[in-house]
Specification:
Number of strands: 0
Strand content: under 5%
Shape: globular
Order of helices and strands: HHHHHHH
CATH topology of the largest domain: Rna Polymerase Sigma Factor, Chain: A
Number of domains: 2
Helix content: 55-70%
Radius of gyration: 18 Å
Low-confidence stretches: 92-111
Amino acid sequence: MRFMSERGPTEARTRLEEFLRAEGGSLAAMFRRALGDPELAMDLLQETMMEAWRHIETYDTERPFRNWVFRIAENRLRNRIRRKRLEAARMRPLGDWEPAVAELPEAGVMASERQALLEKALLGLPYEERLCVILRYQEELSVSDIGEILGATPNAVSLRLFHAREKLKSLLGERRRP
């Protein structure tokens, strides 16, 4: 094993800057889809990059850098979702008031009704399945890379993807019926 600390702080900073330029948009999109909130996604992107910077010396240079950062991102995302659930459980309903749904910046591009239904159905999946779908179909990662990021076996990832696709088919099928 070789760790980034052996290479020096300048190379580490360069590596993170290159990653942010090349992959920052993908990471932000993953957060946005997983959370359904563009502003929260950008906050989480910043937190992830700061966390990666603080722990760059722990990066094993023999492993894919992208997977290492995505693993940090997944941990931050899991904590944020957990915190969001706790906050929601503590909140009392405010009568008939319903919060307005924030419009995504890509709303003009993703105008199709099917895309909107898919995004909504994706948010209805359990966290692990939702993240597997995002990493597989948005990030186009292999099942083994997803397993490395999530700390799961490739078979477990394949099973989560299967269940997620079945649930998405069911959710989308239910929405199409009158």
